[in-house]
Amino acid sequence: MTDDAQLFRRYAEEGSEQAFGELVARYINLVYSAAVRQTGDAHLAEDVAQAVFTALARKARALPREVRLGGWLYRHACFVAAQTARTERRRQARERRSLEMNGLNDHSEPDWEQLAPFLDEAMKHLGTTERDAILLRYFENRGLHDVGNALGVSEDAARKRVTRAVEKLRTFFMRRGLTLSTATLATLLAGHAVVAAPTGLAVSVTSAALAGAATSAGISLTLLKVMTMTKLKAGIASAIVVAGLATPLVFQEQTNRRLRSEIEVLREQTQQIGQLREANDRLAKLKADANALAQLQKEHGELVRLRGEVGVLKRQLAERQTHAAGSATDAGQTSSGPGLTLAPDALQDVGNGTPETAIQTFLWAATQRNGGRCAELLDYESLQSAAFVKIRQAMPDTSVSEAESLAKEAVDKIRQHIATSGLTVTNLDTVTSWRIEEKLEAKEVPGVALVHLTRLLRDGSAESEKVKLRQSGDQWFIYPSEEGMGVSFTPLTNGPPTSAASER
What we know:
By secondary structure, the protein is an alpha+beta fold. It is built from 17 helices and 8 strands. The strands form 2 sheets. It has a 6-stranded antiparallel β-sheet with strand order 1-2-4-5-6-7. Strand 1 (333-334) and strand 2 (340-342) form a beta hairpin. Helix 2 crosses helix 4 (69-105), helix 7 (144-151) crosses helix 8 and helix 15 packs across helix 16. The radius of gyration is 49 Å and the shape is rod-shaped. The chain starts with a helix and ends in a 15-residue tail after the last strand. 22% of the residues are buried.
């Protein structure tokens, strides 16, 4: 087997890639094992192995021919691994401190998934030196000393340049609605800017290092020969060198283009998700309104049922009060058959304990043009429920609470208008009397009465209407209807009437 010295000499003098590959195969385990022990990390060990063999390829001509490769590679591997581990520990310590400070100070800053789609665009807005500083510090994970060396400045100047670049990135993200501190952004860049490389990287990196070293050696040899070449040969050699250097740049540009396309797709998907969430919120609101309406209708039905039950229990008392009221108003009243007949001059305020007394009191208030008393006898609750249903039918997009508010506002205006403008009996001078009798079928509906009201006119004719009343507690209230009562809205002054009923 060819000894190490011969293989090393063949590579150093002839540039034999086969000889260098044999050396790598012989010592790769030695170098990798030493790196793993020093760093404790397989990925860092791969980086150390690459750096060691790249250094061997670069320094092959400068090393003495009697060098012992095993010893040199081991010492260099230990040196590079120790330096790498020390740098890694410092970086991790800084990241932990930044994460702890960020966790104590702010728990609402955006995460990496929110920043990643905008990172490449933000990097384009940096200057060349600032972008190089970010790449060296966070994308290549270099220390500030190394960043300064790479940029040709001191370590302190490198720190300031990195800080200034991070602050510009933070300002860019804030304009996109992503608010975070400089320390948080630095931590996210350090932890997520570069992802782990795939398995088998060591072999490909070794080949790349060999190719790189070979290219470097070829360039050096070419530069020596260029001094003795003609101008034509020098031009051809320069073109070959430029082509060799341009190939990696073309590959990098293709990779960047592919990444930008993927980022754009992710941004579109994020916008679609936002639109779907808004639509879902609207549907949830509509469902909540429908549930609230159903619950309100159910509660209203239950309230009507309970009021009916109370009305049944008080029905007998109301009938007795009817007879008592009839006895109290004998003057000017007649009784021909069932029911109660009232002359205009015999009307008086007898309360509203029964449907009959409520109607009598209402007719008295209308003849006296007492708007306040008329307003007290009307069934505004039923009127408000009817207004609510009509509003929902006319404007189905209106919410339950808005429809209730509109119905209440309309009923309040009616109440105020009646109280201030009053009511008047239509053609009072032609009325001889009113006859009140309750329909028998109305007794089957608890808390509701349907009363037959007849107006007897001087020409011997009669006009009959049905009046609906609702019981609330121990009192009865009239559902407002101009046709049913033969009354109309009119101002308290002697002006003209203002409703259609008064024009009949």
